[in-house]
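Is this the right way to post structure tokens for a design question? Let me know if I should format differently. Anyway, here goes:
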């Protein structure tokens, strides 16, 4: 079994890492204070082919696989997990349109998505349906040659900021089979947004409720087949979970790198911190946690690329393993910085705050355990 990256994959990782350190890292603290990511960043991102990572080249994308995507988001998150994760959501939408959209839908939506002329948000969660996503209540009724939407989506990254919202809405009866996927463009009459959420982390990306009040969209804004939206959403989350895990991994790696450097400089009791054996043991444990998580993540991404029948289970396991370990490592890095770790100037506390939500979104880690357990029991049957 070959675990080595190809020359092309190494180049992809280094390109994303260098871009992040040059164009994102110097501004991450300010963007967090501003509560937004400047939109003039996105043309530069798109110029590198990172606006449509999973979009076919014929539609302006890069046509890369899920393993390539994990490399990109890990590298970008070394600069800022919040910015990288926002980009991952946009790319998740692109992957869903590529996979499930008609030829006409791909031609309409994907070129501006890949150029990042249109920023996409993903809308599944509602105020009354988080982990139980199939219980969503937002509804779309047929209205002449279009659809009339009513309902509210919650915790939407890019709410009020993005240009299009890939939304799961109920077009039929209760349960998953009554859900369809639609695309709602910004400035559509009846589309509005709640106040920006005041969050613990991910503060550079605006988050708000997305509200539909007699919001009318054309019939061809339906993505794929009516009644298949929930299966599309779940398939999109397989890749999304890998992206979020990769972003957590990159953030934790950045925290560990800073901690190793800090410990070589900080002195106590007459020697640098990295000379204390007890602290060396903690560094070793954190390095092992991240390296093992990296291998597991890349295996899961490879399985999704190969269309393995148990890829969903492995994506859930990777999301659970990587986000838990990444947060633990970042939190330990803060501890090893002592009081300085609690200060914004050192950048560690931001990583801790940003990585905490990775254990919650794209399906909480409790739901990951449920997916894994059910899959194990189904395999026995």
């Amino acid at each position: 079994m070959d675990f080595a990256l190809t020359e092309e994959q190494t180049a992809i990782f280094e390109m994303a890492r260098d871009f992040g350190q040059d164009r994102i890292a110097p501004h991450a603290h300010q963007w967090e204070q501003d509560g937004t990511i400047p939109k003039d960043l996105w043309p530069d991102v798109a110029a590198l082919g990172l606006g449509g990572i999973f979009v076919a080249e014929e539609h302006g994308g890069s046509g890369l696989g899920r393993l390539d995507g994990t490399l990109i988001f890990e590298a970008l998150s070394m600069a800022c997990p919040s910015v990288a994760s926002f980009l991952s959501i946009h790319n998740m939408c692109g992957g869903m349109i590529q996979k499930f959209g008609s030829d006409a839908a791909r031609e309409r939506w994907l070129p501006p998505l890949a150029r990042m002329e249109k920023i996409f948000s993903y809308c599944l969660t509602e105020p009354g349906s988080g982990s139980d996503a199939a219980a969503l209540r937002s509804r779309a009724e047929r209205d002449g040659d279009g659809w009339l939407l009513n309902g509210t989506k919650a915790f939407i990254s890019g709410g009020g900021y993005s240009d299009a919202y890939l939304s799961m809405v109920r077009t039929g009866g209760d349960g998953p089979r009554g859900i369809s996927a639609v695309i709602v463009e910004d400035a559509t009459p009846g589309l509005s947004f709640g106040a920006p959420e005041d969050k613990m982390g991910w503060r550079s990306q605006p988050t708000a409720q997305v509200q539909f009040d007699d919001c009318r969209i054309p019939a061809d804004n339906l993505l794929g087949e009516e009644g298949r939206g929930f299966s599309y959403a779940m398939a999109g989350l397989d890749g999304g979970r890998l992206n979020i895990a990769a972003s957590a991994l990159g953030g934790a790696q950045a925290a560990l790198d800073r901690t190793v450097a800090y410990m070589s400089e900080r002195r106590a009791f007459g020697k640098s911190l990295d000379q204390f054996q007890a602290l060396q043991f903690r560094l070793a444990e954190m390095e092992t946690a991240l390296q093992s998580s990296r291998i597991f993540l890349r295996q899961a991404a490879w399985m999704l690329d190969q269309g393995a029948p148990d890829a969903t289970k492995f994506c859930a396991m990777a999301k659970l393993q990587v986000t838990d370990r990444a947060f633990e490592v970042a939190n330990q890095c803060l501890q090893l910085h002592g009081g300085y770790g609690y200060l914004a100037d050192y950048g560690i506390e931001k990583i801790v705050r940003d990585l905490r939500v990775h254990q919650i979104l794209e399906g909480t880690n409790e739901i990951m355990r449920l997916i894994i357990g059910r899959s194990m029991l189904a395999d026995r049957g």
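Format looks fine. Someone answered above. Worth noting: The chain has a mean pLDDT of 96. Residues 229-265 form the longest helix (37 residues).
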